[in-house]
Each structure stands twice: as C-alpha cells, then as structure tokens.
Design brief:
44% helix, alpha+beta, 5-stranded antiparallel β-sheet
C-alpha cells in the first residue's frame, strides 16, 4: 500500500466575475453544484452565494485534502472566512480507485486530458468510493456564525465549480491525493503513458455521455420571438471577392436565410405546433421560388430562374403563387392530380351546395381543376380540401387569390381579380 503526504495545498488566484456565464459546464462541475443546491436548507442563501460568486467577491481559493477555504466579501465589503469540508478517502480506497482507473481503456487518457470519465466515477461508487459529493457531503464552516450553508460558503462552492471545470484533479486533491501522487500511482500500476493519451479519439463516448445524464442541467426556456430577422454581416470590404463568389448574391442569400429562420421560429412558438406534421425539405426548384419572393436584384432573379428551370415569366407566376400561400400554393400551381374516392365526393358536394340552381356556373373538370365554361376563371382543389382561384392571362393560368373553403368564394375572387362581375 502506498501512502502520500496529506498536507499538500494548492492555492488558486481569485477568478474574475462570471457575468453572462454559468459556473459549471462539465458534468462533474454540475454534479458538485447539485450537491450544494440539494443539501442547502435555505435556498435564498444559495442564491446569495451565486450572486456573490458572480460578482467576483470570492478571493483566492485554497484547496487541500478534506477542505477548501477562501475569504468572501459581502456587498458591504465585510470579509468572512468560509470553509467547506469534504471527507478524505482512505489509503485502501485510493488503491482501489487506481485499480479501477487502469481496468477500462481510456480512463487514464481522459484524466490526462483533464476530464472525469463518468464510468470511472460510477465504477468507483459501486466499489464504495464516492469521488463526487452527494447530499450532505459538503460540510460548511463560516465565521459569520451560520450553522448551515450561508451565502459565503455557497459562493465558495460556486467558485470551486469553475475550478473543477478546468481541472478535475482539484476534486481528487480534496479527496486526499495530489495530481502527481495519482499519476505516479497510475504509472506504477501500468497505466497509460502520455503518448497513449495523445491517441485518444476526439469527442465523448456515447455510453459515458448517457451515464452522466442525471446531472445535466434542465433544458433552457424557449426563446422569445425577435421583432424581425437579424441583419446579416456586411460583405462590403476592401478585399476583392474571389472570382467565383458574387457578394450581392451571397448577401441576398444570407438575408433570406435570416428571414426564413425568423419565420420558422414564429411557427415553432405558435400554439399547437408540436402536434403538426414536420414538412419535408423543399427541392432546389421550389426553394428558388422562395428566394425569388424576396425581391432580389435582376441578376440574382435571372440566376434563380435558370437554376430552377423556369423562364423569367414562369418564375414571376410561381412567385405570385408563393406570396399567396407559400409551398401549398406553389404545389397547386404546378401539380395536377386526379381527384377520386371520398375526396371527389366531397368536392362535388361542395360545388353543388355553393350556388343556387339557377346561379351555378357551368364547370368543366380535369383532374383537380374546374374551369368555368365561357369565362377565364378556374378553381383548383388542394389536398387539404381548399379551393384556389385562377384566371387566364395571355393564354396561361395564373393565381388570382388565396385559398377558400367555399368554391363560390374562391370563384368570386377570381372574377374580382380579373375585373369581372362575380
């Protein structure tokens, strides 16, 4: 059995204020804070400690086996010595810990990379070796006279969480062993060398990430919807653009991407969004229409037309449809499909009931399209049972308005758009 000097102490300089950031990012740092927050009887003292630590009120932190110490200043600049005690592991427990560390590939390499493998912590706990503190393991002492965690000891714990994030060997020192003592023990037991640690693959093992799930923080609150999409960065620089990059087109694409992200966020925050089907990604030809609806300059417009296989005129018609109803309206413009079964029965019933007998127009049906005989008006049915008005212009059918549940309303829209009497 190897024994080590338990009087070793490390002192860490005071850290700057933690404005705008959390105190722990690693799973072991979060576990440390969970032990504090779960055990404190007065939650308000924990909040006070968090504010003090965030403001930079914690001085240099002394870490030695079984104890951490710092001077913490109140808001009125009164200084208090705060200590937090943590039970040290026995020599037998340390020997068992070293054995566990070298049993599983990657544990030693992870420690050398300043990471704490979740499986190592779990295996140690199973063997009766608690590396991370649990409920009630962080024992407070403060000269302010509090018998439970006060704002000063809580502030010290929050500051130590930042130290643990940077170096998990701080935790091992609190439990009774210095970094050099641990590494010497691993080396003497046949642990991995530094070269082996360098070969450790990037990333986190999936099983280890899952094992640490119980100490992960809760999901953040949903974001609020900004008033509008963000402005993309300016590409107007003194550096000439590469020959295959069009700055104007790239800037337009960035702006439309921001607008689309804002639209998608608005939909996601709308009530009932979670019960809606997830739409598929549009193909390039349809996405070109979405981009063209953002009023690009003529050169970008022409590129979008060529890229989507459309003439400038057909792209203009597609954009008109998109502005009326997005991808659903574009599908009605470009897709003809056979109406049959219950869908056909419902469509016929809607057409029969939309007008009185003597007012019903004569309609000629083909697929999902009903054309008024003797008039430049047409109705198109979408897969949701809605009716879209169309009118004939220069030998082609163009959208004349938004969708309606009633075919008579839709047809009246087509007549009004053409300047006719409905």
């Amino acid at each position: 059995m190897t024994r080590y000097d338990d009087d070793t102490e490390r002192t860490f300089a005071a850290l700057p204020p933690a404005h705008g950031r959390g105190f722990a990012q690693t799973w072991w740092g979060l576990a440390w804070l969970k032990a504090l927050e779960d055990a404190a009887l007065d939650a308000s003292q924990v909040k006070t400690g968090r504010r003090l630590a965030r403001a930079g009120a914690v001085g240099a932190v002394s870490v030695r086996p079984g104890r951490i110490t710092a001077v913490v200043q109140d808001r009125d600049r009164t200084a208090h010595r705060a200590d937090v005690l943590l039970e040290r592991l026995s020599d037998a427990q340390w020997d068992r810990f070293v054995d566990l560390a070298i049993e599983r590939s990657g544990h030693v390499a992870a420690l050398l990379d300043r990471e704490m493998p979740p499986h190592l912590v779990e295996d140690a706990a199973t063997a009766g070796i608690d590396l991370l503190p649990g409920l009630g393991d962080l024992e407070p002492e403060c000269d302010c006279g509090a018998w439970d965690h006060c704002g000063h000891t809580a502030a010290l714990c929050y500051q130590v969480a930042r130290l643990l994030d940077q170096d998990p060997f701080v935790l091992l020192l609190m439990r009774g062993r210095t970094e050099s003592a641990v590494l010497d023990a691993l080396q003497s037991h046949g642990g991995a060398s530094g070269e082996e640690g360098a070969l450790r693959p990037d990333g986190v093992d999936a099983a280890e990430a899952y094992a640490a799930g119980h100490v992960l923080p809760p999901l953040p609150a949903l974001p609020g919807l900004p008033e509008g999409p963000g402005a993309p960065p300016s590409l107007d620089t003194e550096t000439a653009a590469p020959p295959d990059v069009d700055p104007a087109a790239l800037g337009f694409l960035a702006a439309r991407t921001a607008a689309e992200a804002h639209r998608l966020l608005a939909e996601a925050l709308r009530g009932g969004h979670g019960r809606q089907a997830v739409p598929g990604d549009p193909d390039a030809a349809r996405d070109a229409v979405r981009l063209a609806a953002g009023d690009p300059d003529p050169d970008v417009w022409r590129r979008l037309g060529v890229g989507s296989g459309r003439t400038e005129e057909s792209l203009a018609v597609a954009v008109s449809a998109w502005r009326l109803g997005g991808e659903a309206a574009l599908s009605v413009l470009e897709e003809e499909w056979t109406v049959e079964g219950d869908t056909l029965a419902r469509a016929r019933a809607a057409l029969e009931s939309a007008w009185d007998e003597d007012e019903r127009p004569s309609l000629r049906a083909r697929g999902n399209r009903w054309t008024v005989v003797g008039a430049p008006h047409q109705l198109r049915l979408d897969h949701e049972g809605r009716w879209w008005p169309y009118r004939e212009e220069r030998g082609r059918w163009v959208p004349a308005g938004g969708a309606a549940q009633d075919p008579a309303t839709a047809l009246a829209s087509a007549a009004l758009a053409a300047g006719d009497e409905p």
